[in-house]
Fold these 2 entries.
Entry 1:
Amino acid sequence: MVFSLSLYLIILKLNPNLSNLLIIFTLRSIIKAIEDKMGNEKFGKILKVNLKNKSFNERYINKNDVMTFLGGPGFAIDYLMKQKVFEYDPLSEKNPLVVMTGLLTSTSFPCSGFYSVSARSPLTTIYGEGLSGGFFGAELRKVLNGIIIENKADSPVYLKIEDDHYELKDASDLWGLTTDKTIQNLRSELGKNYKVTCIGTSGEINVPLASIINDHFRAVGRGGMGAVMGSKNLKAIAVKSSKKIDYFNEEKFNNISKSIFLSFKKSAMGDVLKNFGTNNIDYFERLADVPHKNWTLHKWKGVNEISGSVVLERLHVKSRPCYLCPFSCGREIEIKEGPYKISNAACSEYETTAAFGAMCLISNVEAIAYMNHLCNTMGVDTISAGCTIAFAMDCYEKSILTQDDIGFPLEWGDADAAIKLLNLMCKKEGIGKILSNGSRKASEIIGNGSEEFLAEIKGLEAPMHDPRAIFPLGLQYATSNRGACHLRGFANDLYSGFTGFNEALKISKEKPIKERTIDNPEFARDVAISQNLSEINNALGICRQSISSGSQIVENLLDLILDEIYYLIEIKLALSELMEIGERIFNLKRVFNNKCGITKKDDRIPPRLKFPLEKGRVKDKVLTIDLMLEEYYKFRGWDVNGIPTKNKLFELKIENY
Ligand code: SF4
């Protein structure tokens, strides 16, 4: 601003006739500088809702916010740190629920319907977050970039948002309903144009595995965000807007979006996802990527009975893509008769199929679909639920849990016993009271050596990609900020040839299995950079497929994303600046976790992931990450205990938190 004024005075002195033009130029510069500092519609706004006194406060986002954190979980961790949420109990009023959309959410960029929910996790007691696609996030972003929900309502409420009108409404009629009924009832009362996200009955009773479900089929699954929402007596958020996203240059933005969309749509990967969703379990089996029988078997013939092609044959599949998605992995199914009869149900994704199927040795595709539906309607994370049941089956086999403890036999492969147990967990009844806490806490209660059957890191059950076949994935799981996670980093895609950004980020390319199954410190850098990219992915609010598969299809995808950011908000970032934002978000989450007590001792591989398999492609491999972890800390600028150094925090401009 000072520069603009000085320039104006100098030029005016040289040529007085230019004065009008210069006045306009100067005024525009001044207004822009003020807007960038104060925030404005261009960057959007965040709503703060106080459930106790029913008040609403809005704050505009400014240029600095975007340059520092982009959006999504970036804004969330900034807020959680500033509020010192690491000091409070996850189910206390002091733990806010931070719902954020990403910078590109709701734009014409393909797969940009994502939103995030962050809070201190009741499952892991560290930083928790989940992201979800569908349509809710896209609708919300038209009005708000995010909502911070504080305190607790005296009785059940839901938040209604219609453009700039916000209202907390009585939800006593909705309390006690499943997620599908809640969404259905709200939309018939408010109108079909409303998009809804909500908790089920498990969230209401604060089950630590509770999820949040939007648009019937999409879940903020991991880390118990649904329990935090339930602890606030908040049943749902319903949003409708007639507004449009404000672009700096809409035409240029749309041109890029359109060409990416078409490339995605006609790609071979697009065909696979459209036909089989993510459930390519038979293909993953060939890569030694699928865990079976709580990580203790190398192979299982039941995989062929629960694969994507069997689902397609038997379960009346219909396509159900998220907002503006050309890949369309989301699907709806129906089971018309029999004990597992369901309709309008989400089709199980790979993770769910493996968690209930391969992990528990359940080869009944209908039963798996039914368990998926139970989880979605009661509102519980499918990965943690399936893996905790597998842990309980392991305990039962070793007589650490008995029929008396459980109330019925719990043999491997017994679908009906698994369904009974899942119901108990969702309702916190019987043995479910213990197991609904997730496997780590359950093992602490059960004792008797049950910790040997655990496959969790920082309290989060490991997802369904086997790091014994990709050691760098083990490093990613061990260091992931929300606990073991395949979605916070791209280690499983990097070395299998599923990504195309390797050259742009100067990281390794596809490697044969024997080169991936070594504790090689060279992998540390790849893993760290891919975790930073993952933070960008989420802060942009776009589906992970659009970065992993997408970068394989569109060669210069990251450059195009930088162009899109410019055409949206007139900020030109270099790739290195974008990656630094990702690094900043990752490190700030780590600082949050350090304050919750996380150090090197927690960046570890649990017993079941070290279990050597007797046969198969990774026979006798014992997963170790010691060398990679040492190098990882060095590359990240952390000390030997896994704490970011002052220099690193200073370099990332987060030294003052
Ligand atoms: S690829 Fe699947 S999860 Fe991603 S946006 Fe498309 S339908 Fe949604």
Entry 2:
Amino acid sequence: MEQLVDVLLVLALFSYTTWAVKGSLHCKQTNSGKIRPHSVTITEFGAVGDGVTLNTKAFQNAIFYLNSFADKGGAKLFVPAGRWLTGSFDLISHLTLWLDKDAVILGSMNSDDWPVVDPLPSYGRGRELPGGRHRSLIYGRNLTDVIITGDNGTIDGQGSIWWNWFRSETLNYTRPHLVELMNSTGVIISNLTFLNSPFWTIHPVYCSHVRVQNVTILAPLDSPNTDGIDPDSSDDVCIEDCYISTGDDLIAIKSGWDEYGIAYGRPSRNISIRGLTGHNRNGSGIAFGSEMSGGVSEIHAENIYFFNTSTAIKFKTARGRGGYVRNIHISNVTLSDVDIAIRFEGNFSQHPDEFYDPNALPVIERITFKDVIGDNIKVAGLLKGIEGDSFLGILILVVSQRNSPSPRQGYDARHKKLSGVADMLLLTCEIVLRDCFL
Ligand SMILES: *[C@@H]1O[C@H](CO)[C@@H](O)[C@H](O)[C@H]1NC(C)=O
Ligand SMILES: *[C@@H]1O[C@H](CO)[C@@H](O)[C@H](O)[C@H]1NC(C)=O
Ligand SMILES: *[C@@H]1O[C@H](CO)[C@@H](O)[C@H](O)[C@H]1NC(C)=O
Ligand SMILES: *[C@@H]1O[C@H](CO)[C@@H](O)[C@H](O)[C@H]1NC(C)=O
Ligand SMILES: *[C@@H]1O[C@H](CO)[C@@H](O)[C@H](O)[C@H]1NC(C)=O
Ligand SMILES: *[C@@H]1O[C@H](CO)[C@@H](O)[C@H](O)[C@H]1NC(C)=O
Ligand SMILES: *[C@@H]1O[C@H](CO)[C@@H](O)[C@H](O)[C@H]1NC(C)=O
Ligand SMILES: *[C@@H]1O[C@H](CO)[C@@H](O)[C@H](O)[C@H]1NC(C)=O
Ligand SMILES: *[C@@H]1O[C@H](CO)[C@@H](O)[C@H](O)[C@H]1NC(C)=O
Ligand SMILES: *[C@@H]1O[C@H](CO)[C@@H](O)[C@H](O)[C@H]1NC(C)=O
Ligand SMILES: *[C@@H]1O[C@H](CO)[C@@H](O)[C@H](O)[C@H]1NC(C)=O
């Protein structure tokens, strides 16, 4: 194994210079503070902020009314302080949904208030169960210029009831997201807190030009599948200055599932993540996949801090996925109390059905990690490929560890896990600051 690593080091270095991209990744400041010429308050439509009255009709009526201003510069729906219980509602183009300080939108705890919609074509079925899926609490489709923002108001999915249905296997359809925007462009989600999503929290799918900035996303560490932000078959996405602590992946970049994702063929591309702090205990800080069949490329992540986290960065894929994950550049990652810093898992073997093509192998290439440092990392790298597939040009410039109680632990663990990996091209540490753990 040592010999393999030495030989491949040269290969990976060779390809590195041809694609590494440098430069600032700040989100372009499109105007989230945009003045909308028309504004209404949700109470004008009969909403009651007592945490008990169901306000779905009020939200729907307000938004229906505001639709007449879409071609007149757009409109703002103001949600004042209060607890506004609602079922799922649809957004429209040229809308700002504004949650004031102490405004809380609460998701209904009755599954009938979350209607069932078609599965995504790139998944072929619901992610959890065959058939449709419950529509997200806040939903938008075919939209342009949508802003969800405010003065740190809260959107709380009250997901515990869904987690219980999941655990007791009494769901009839796949659980809903808290916010889903589909086939939309010019989306800003900022300055808010998102709590207790039933399933993934913020899900832009088939979207372009999405900015998620300065949001807090929280769910209990043991809540099932409560991913933070999952850009899915979306491009030109910027995620900046977020704090996320949930039960699963904090950010997961996806692009469809097996033969359905391959056929739909819409990649996730040009995504930047900058200034992310978070933790979890079952999931990853930043994950790629496992659904990546439409391809994932040009992803930059920097200035990341994860503490008390199970896996920091994880690439999940499987036989049958097809697609690719390439040109991924991750730098300036600080870790504290992390089980595994970098993980590749080539046998993440959930499939939508038995019709996937086992010969559809993912291409994993040109992945760099630079300046990954940490305290108390149990395993620096755990890398498992796919028999007969190559993961090419994986370059880890610096992974260093401070204050490690047992500096050989990561090394040993890796060698144990590496046995049985076929044909994985791997470059380990080029520069060793103190102890290099791969
Ligand atoms: C996406 O939205 C555009 C504009 O609203 C529409 O023309 C197109 O058909 C939509 N595509 C899908 C797949 O929904
Ligand atoms: C979005 O566009 C698709 C494709 O044109 C259409 O089938 C669908 O009804 C539209 N949905 C909405 C909510 O506009
Ligand atoms: C982040 O959002 C809070 C309100 O949620 C606001 O007070 C603060 O100014 C925002 N910070 C930035 C950098 O936008
Ligand atoms: C926003 O509210 C959340 C939850 O109450 C809190 O954790 C967070 O610190 C607040 N953010 C700001 C910028 O005030
Ligand atoms: C599933 O369907 C059954 C039968 O219609 C219904 O009683 C139950 O409430 C549904 N479960 C959920 C979580 O919606
Ligand atoms: C967040 O809030 C701050 C303070 O009000 C404001 O300056 C900033 O533009 C907001 N950012 C976004 C992206 O909405
Ligand atoms: C972690 O997530 C997996 C997959 O969802 C689940 O099987 C397992 O029970 C979870 N573990 C904990 C401790 O929540
Ligand atoms: C990448 O996305 C950003 C928005 O986040 C956009 O400003 C930029 O032009 C895009 N770059 C390319 C090469 O498409
Ligand atoms: C690295 O990221 C941290 C946040 O985790 C930030 O405070 C620091 O300024 C970044 N360093 C550089 C050189 O950008
Ligand atoms: C780390 O997580 C464990 C359980 O997941 C918790 O008991 C502990 O308090 C956490 N420590 C810190 C520093 O957050
Ligand atoms: C992949 O995972 C599946 C299900 O966990 C298991 O049955 C199979 O043996 C694994 N294959 C390899 C090559 O590890």
